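Hey,

The postdoc asked me to send both predictions to you directly instead of through the lab channel. I've kept everything plain text so nothing gets mangled by the mail client. Protein one:
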Amino acid sequence: MRPIHRREDGTIPGVRADVVRSADQPALERLVAGPESGGEGAPLLFVHGAFAGAWCWAETFLPFFGRRGRQAVAVSLRGHGASEGGEELRGAGLDDLASDLGRAIGSFAEPPVVVAHSLGGYLAQLLIGRARMRGLVLMGSLPPDGMALVGPRLAMTEPKIWSQAAAATVTNSRATIDLAGLQLLFGEGVPREKALRYGARLIPESPRALAEAHLPRPVVSALLAGLPTLVLNGVVDRLVWPSTALRSAAYHAAGHRFFAEGGHFLMLDPLAEDVAREILDWLAVRRL
């Protein structure tokens, strides 16, 4: 992965910020690369998972697609990143977060291809058949049944990181995650200094949204909706196992690709450009 050049203020050249505003709803941060409108193919909307924000897409993915003439936009859902709604995040449910994603999708002049990570992938699946999407890429995503199986399995197989994340969520405080825990989240290939920097940006997630994610909801198969879908996962992702990703691919009759040595946060992984290139190739084949 090429080195990231940051300005003195910490921003990344070629990535700019704007806002999605709606009456009586929190304003949502957007980070944008590439043309303001138009560009090569459909616009791309990147959606983060639990505890993160639009920032996780800004280092590699947004510049990568922007340099190739794509309109690439990452959104921070309410209470995440620089979006409004932080004071009310604890009471926000899945419907609130899905509504934010729907607003972000509706902010484009044409339907975007949605690239969604982890919990964000579950939100995107809840919107199949309800929001106008040209395509869907699920990256390290929760499956169609949300955390119903993933949550209990995590508590058994990864009790340390599960308990640290749960404590931060319940107490609404930033958990102190040691380096081993950060490597579990970001992958052992991520350098120590980067893992610590990324970990410092994680926030407590909405306990209501996480609790609701354990209760399965109806999800329309992408096949039935005629929505081209791709499932991507890291082979060494210890939060969303490859077998879980295969369940998602089977449910949606989607193509899938696994990345050896890839962790859960593929967009922050040393393999990030390889993952982005896989998406770019899939978009070309699908003429999206």
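Protein two:
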Amino acid sequence: MAPEIAQHPSGRYAVPDVPAYLDACDTVELKAVLAESEGSRAAHSLGFDLADVLTRQVYYLDTPGLALEAAGVIVRVRRTGDAGADTTVRIRPADPAALEPELRRRKGFNVELDMGPDGFVCSASLKTRLAGATVVAAATGRTSPGALFTPRQRRLFQAYAPVGMALDGLCLFGPVRVQRLAGTARGWQHPLTVQMWEFPAEPVVELSSKVAAADAAAAVARWPSFLDLHRVIPRLFRHTKAQTALRASAPRPAFG
């Protein structure tokens, strides 16, 4: 599946309206998708050192028919070389008002607004860190992927997944190789990340910045000017990275 990247009709990032429920979120992530050919130039303009790139392997879990995606549930596993790994259960889209207060107090739980050229999408996720070796064992079928997730992540999964579905019965998709750079840049006071997702049909470069909800309104307003300053030309990306990754490889049984 090709990512379907196109240039924005105006050639400039259009600022969507900030949702009224911004105050109910923890963070806002601003994003701009670039063509692969623009990635190195953008990283150089931002002042990032390409020698500092970090390589990740990203997997997703779903059914062969992508029933989890249809239900708005994303199950992701990431491994960063020998530096460790993490697992995430994400609900997207999510309604902040419908989330249990007890769940929101949990360590690693985050409610986030993703800002793209066509608007905002709210998600709720629970992430935990683990050793990279455990991901290798699950990816090679030696252990169940369910062993990578905490009891709290499993409960969140069961609350939103289709009835009767279990983590241990899902298929593994990936990995997708991701090259990641992080740092700061002239004209922007928040941390920045540049990632290149090496999808088989067409790699995708994403520039993103995660800011606290309290700083979001001002950051959203400044984002287009910051992109202009570094001559970053945003593209329209019609599929999320998870959607593209789930279609970039054939599903395979994750265990057994």
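Summary for protein two, as requested: The first strand starts at residue 5 and ends at 7.

Thanks,
C.
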